[in-house]
Amino acid sequence: MLEFGTYALSESILYGQYLGGDRVQRITFDHDFTDDSDIETFPKGMRLYGNGHNIEIRELEDSAGFAYLSVSRTLRKGQIGSDVLHLHDTFGPDQTPLHWYGGPELMEQYYPIEKLRFDDYAYITKELHSAAIVERYWLNTAGVFFYVDKEVPLFLDQDDQVLRFSAKKELPYYTYDEEFVFSYRVGVAADAREAHQKAVERVLNQPVDIPDERMVRQPIWSTWVRYRRPISQQTVLDFAREINAYGFKNAQLDIDDLWEVCYGSLTFNTITFPNVTEMTEMLHEMGFRVTLWVHPFINKNCDPWYTEALSKGYLVKSHNETIGYNTKWWNSAENEASYINFNNPDAVEWFRRRLRELQELGIDNFKFDAGETSWSPPDPNIEGTRALLPSSQTVNFVRMCAAFGGMIEVRTGWGTQDLPVFVRMLDFDTRWGWNNGLQSLIPTLLQMNLNGYPFVLPDMIGGNVYGDDILTKELFIRWLEASIFMPSIQFSKTPWDIDEETITISKKFAQLHETYSDYIIQRMRLAVTHGTPVNPPIWWLDPTDKIAQTIYDEYLLGEDIVVAPVLAEFATSRDIYLPKGTWRDGNTNRVHEGGRWIYNYTAPMDTLPYFVSATFQAN
Q1: Whole-angstrom Cα distance, residue 164 to residue 84?
Q2: Which long-range contacts (CB under 8 A, 24 or more apart) does 135-138 make?
Q3: Which residues belong to any copy of the Glycosyl hydrolase family 31 C-terminal domain (predicted)?
Q4: Total Cβ atoms within 10 A of residue 31
Q5: What is the Cα–Cα distance from 414 to 135, expressed in whole angstroms?
Q6: Which residue in 425, 396, 391 sits closest to 410, CA to CA?
Q7: CA distance 394 to 321
Q8: Is residue 142 exposed (0-12), middle (13-18) or buried (19+ Cβ within 10 Å)?
């Protein structure tokens, strides 16, 4: 066995070692390095030769409490690099099993993420499975993190034992160069919290500012679920009057699908919106800011805009001439739309200029939809650093959006944690379960925070009511309760669509959110200065707490509020695990010591279980 720093190599296995000396994580390479001639050592590292691969392992840091390593190799087209993480290694004197966090946003957002399964999964942003946030970051309870570099054409396989990272020159990645890199970094710290903070500093980044504060304090209202498409000027004004008449506050009113002449025109339909300036003036007088739903597509029947974009080279084209510029999105038929090429600076400026023209009509800002890489035609032929294709499309789209300021929202990102904007969870269905329903809400919140996106905008209260889904009174209220201590809340289906009691309960919880909005903003500012999550998992307070490491239906606001909503249909009580600390019940004022369970906590439909640190003082 060769040892250096906090790592050791034995045959095909690289061991990350706990700072006290115990092994905490194995990485299995795709070659058995048993012959000394296969190994060349150098100060702070080694090179391994075999199976046509030259692997370089280099120690980047070895300081008090933290060790940091890079593993890299250059491969030729046709080769596959494949390294394996062992998910269920144990560590410490009592051989505690590992749990894992990070990974992709998914429709069925299981937590901890060792429960996920993948089979030759291309790791790019995509609408399929709601994979809009796919940071190449994994963290375990032993205090080890892994980060696969952006230049790697990465595929995942995961079963109940291992997570396999594979690098290969295959679609959907750029396939027209002869060499590519397979490189990743490994950090080892004292515990998961320390490891995550080190990862934020080195690979994840942190936001440079906070988004719009009014979006934190007051609810966002959207026309989408309540009215679907198309929408009209009169409907928007009537909706605003209803919101005011029922005594609800607002951050802004979002005009959703369909307000355009045709998809991609970015031009109001004058039949349904006869006087946009008059409408926005009226909404402003009623106390509303106005945002507008926009998307990065142009349908082929949307002329003259489509012809202009096509003639000027503003659309994504496939290397495959048969496919050409063709794509499909949820508002087009197959091959009847194209995707704007945000890797082209001229296309970005063209798109931005048309949005500025909408703002001249009194539109305050925008809700940006889509932006994932998967909307491009297969094998896109676009500008940009080849090793970052196709995912750089997502980056350039989101950065274009963010230039409009902190009042916007996006729903995707890739290495864009620095942006001071809200990132919305992808559309939820109106269901109770894990299948893109209410039980996925908190795991998605935790996934986004632990990937470095702390400014989370949960989807609309009650979900999107697609297909045969039915929004019941109970589901609406429980969904609202679960969202209250998240950074923002948004309505589309309204409390008065249900009944008077729902109005009363909704006002109570909207006020509770507003009461704690100063603290939410305080925690957002800490995310800027220190890179800490706004809504961390409850193990954040004690990373060694084995029970807290697996809790998926509770979350923290900062380090002072534990939130434990009821997420099961017909339930009027639940068991609650309180993490380390002394906690005051937000409903009864009773004081509890943490590190233990509260069984059968009574929570009828109008009750959200939450606990405030005994030392908490509101600013």
Answers
A1: 4
A2: 135/102, 135/104, 135/204, 135/414, 135/415, 135/451, 135/452, 136/184, 137/102, 137/103, 137/199, 137/203, 137/204, 137/450, 137/451, 137/452, 138/85, 138/100, 138/101, 138/102, 138/103, 138/113, 138/163
A3: 531-613
A4: 16
A5: 6
A6: 425
A7: 23
A8: buried
Six token digits for residue 69 = 């390593």
Given the structure tokens 């505690």, which residue do they identify?
96
Give yes or no for a contact between 292 and 367, defined as CB atoms under 8 angstroms apart.
yes
Residue type, 517: S
d(CA 396, CA 390): 11
- Phi/psi at 549 (5° precision): -65, -20
Question: Residue 7's pLDDT band (boundaries 50, 70, 90)?
Answer: low
Return the half-sphere exposure (C-beta side, CA atoms, 13 A cut-off) of residue 273: 23
Peptide bond preceding 19 in cis form (omega within 30 of 0): no
Is pLDDT of 22 > 60? no
**Strands across the sheet containing 162-167:** 2-4, 7-10, 13-17, 23-28, 81-86, 162-167, 154-158, 118-122
pTM of this structure: 0.96
Predicted confidence at residue 313, as pLDDT, reads 96
Give tens-digit pLDDT for 501-530: 999 999 999 999 999 999 999 999 999 999
Q: What is the pLDDT of residues 468-493, one digit of tens each?
A: 999 999 999 999 999 999 999 999 99
Q: Specify the 3-state DSSP secondary structure of 241.
A: helix
Q: What is the DSSP letter of 423?
A: E
Q: Are 349 and 411 in contact (CB under 8 A)?
A: no
Q: Which helix (H) or strand (E) holds 293?
A: strand 290-294
Neighbours of 116 (CB within 10 A): 20
Partners of 602 in beta bridges: 573
Cα distances (angstroms) measured from residue 227 to each of 311, 507, 551: 36, 22, 37
d(CA 378, CA 571): 46
Question: What is the distance between the alpha carbons of residues 445 and 109, in angstroms, rounded to a whole number?
Answer: 10
Residues 49 and 328: their CA atoms lie apart, in Å, by 46
**Structural domains in the chain, sorted by start:** 12-203 (2.60.40), 213-298+338-529 (3.20.20.80), 538-613 (2.60.40.1180)
- Counting Cα atoms < 13 Å in the Cβ hemisphere of 384 gives 24
Tokens at residue 425, please?
Answer: 């969870």
Question: For strand 144-148 and strand 179-189, is the pairing parallel, antiparallel, or unpaired?
Answer: antiparallel
Angle (CA) 426 430 432, round 5°: 105
On the 0-12 / 13-18 / 19+ scale of CB atoms within 10 A, 536 is: buried
The pLDDT assigned to 547 comes to: 97
Under a CB-based contact definition with an 8 Å cutoff, are residues 535 and 560 in contact? no
Query: What is the spatial distance between Cα 377 and Cα 242, in angstroms, rounded to a whole number?
Result: 43
Closest CA to 268 of 223, 307, 230, 315: 230
Asked whether the predicted pLDDT for residue 409 surpasses 90, the reply is yes
Whether the CA torsion 441, 443, 449, 451 is positive or negative: it is: negative
Helices 473-483 and 500-515: crossing angle in degrees, nearest 10, is: 0
Cβ–Cβ under 8 Å, residues 53 and 31: yes
Helix (H/G/I), strand (E/B), else coil: 541: helix
- The Cα 479–Cα 429 span in angstroms is 12
* Residue 37 burial (10 A CB sphere; 0-12, 13-18, 19+): exposed
Which residue's structure tokens are 């490189």?
183
Q: Can you tell me the mean pLDDT for 411-438?
A: 97
